[in-house]
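Model: Ready when you are.
Researcher: Fold this.
Model:
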Amino acid sequence: MKAVLFIGHGSRKREGNENILSFVEKVKQTIDVPIVETGFLEFAAPTISDGIDACVKRGADNVALVPIMFFPAGHSKIHIPHAMDEAKEKYPNVRFTYGRPIGIHPEMVNILQEKLADETMLPEEGDADTAVLLVGRGSSDADANSELFKLSRLLTEKLDHQVVEISYIGVTKPTVEEGVNRLSRLGAKRIIMVPYFFFSGILVDRMDEKLSAFETEYPGLDFSMTKPIGFHPRLEIILEERAKEALQGNASLNCDMCQYRLFAVEHMGIDHHHHHDHDHPHSHNEDKEEAVQTVKGERP
């Protein structure tokens, strides 16, 4: 029996986790699979292992893990595949497959265009006095960060070469503050910030604080901000595609034999369970830097 386990990142804020659970309940109606469960990477329950257990207890012998994440980064390249490795050992008679993150998909560009039109009245042909600032989560994975650049270019083309800049709320640069400063110096009279997050949570709260600060710091500019991506029907289409790919074994993201993931499991302590509260002092960014230095011979 087939099963799909959708995996959300998890948030310290209950509202964000409830949004994921509600969204998956809605997606269930469009996926022709008898078993659909949800698991969280961290901060919330059920965990990934809880979700896998639930699928197997309901009779699944073919489980597809599908990350509800925008871009392939550390969590989708390392932590989730490692959880799947553990599941394979625990349930040797169950087939486990892994789906791709959402990635760069035409429907995501359509979602952004629609949000800008519906929530900010930005015309389809764009506006010369307006600049769009696309705000990503930010990652220590340069490959994941580069995906936001590609998305911004596709959105620019979709909006007839509307100015679209990118920034990140954490981990890497340019920061949101640097993005706003650049657009201000380029002469923008109106800046629309687009938080490229799934649902409400800590990051959206931070964006609200930043919006208020910008309105004070730049009194001559008109600021506005869209809502996060949220429950969009087009997102359901993408996740349905990702689930079908995973169940058929057609997903192109292959982490089973990734040399970087295997190195990380051996040298970065990735074998610890990732559903903790992150109260311990280490950071994943520090783990990555240590691994890179070790590969380069900079550490014993």
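Researcher: Now this one.
Model:
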Amino acid sequence: MLQMRDAQPVVVRREDYTAPAYWIDTVELVFDLDPAKTRVLNRMRLRRNPHVPVQPLRLDGDELNLARVLVDGQGASFRMESDQLVIDALPDAFELEIFTTCCPIKNTKLMGLFVSEDTFFTQCEAEGFRRITYFLDRPDVMASYEVTLRANKAAYPVLLSNGNLVDQGELPDGRHFAKWVDPFKKPAYLFALVAGKLVAREQRITARNGREHLLQVFVRAGDLDKTEHAMNSLIHSVAWDEARFGLPLDLDRFMIVATSDFNMGAMENKGLNIFNTKYVLANQATATDA
């Protein structure tokens, strides 16, 4: 695999793999979404990997403004080495709190958190999560996530992330919030966030085990009439997974977001797939198989 650092390719070889010095068990993220200055509060529970020699914690970051680092609620000394946040002399298990800001409207790399046509998106595969917060941004580090999104309600009435919606409500000054919990551990590259003016086609289904699920296809208002095929495909795929592999949907809902300006074509984030419209939307009156 080739990684780009300052326009210079760096070769990463599989035979050079080493296990991480720390594991991350839980992640609590709070986003105050603003195109020019988004604030991200990141609280993590970490533990030392006993199978790796004791060494500093090295967290990946890219174009972040670091404001605060706390270990178990106390200020901690740290240093920056290139794009990595390095912390020494840590206990075997601890809570780490990191507060950063970023500028999504100027994120022209379209990796991490960015804004396109007044909508927030994320693209974290392969190494985009480090542009959201400092993290062990590698696929063998898996954690459960709790995510709170806060934003202006008029500008961003829909707030989406991975998992189950457990709370939502109003905030002062015309703002609102939504809290999402994904209890199933995932790597950071499957994290997703979408916020904007969207409408949804919805369908409730009942699994073989009797559990009800909500399926949603979110689009901008002018595309709602093109979502029937996407919804039917989603219903069939959920049923096929259950019938063929005995794997029912593990979350309360499954969401697809389709917009014309998503740069990656498609990204199969856990419970929140994001597509470019040309790959998923169709109107029976005009579309063909050609």
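Researcher: Key takeaway?
Model: The helical segments are 228-245.
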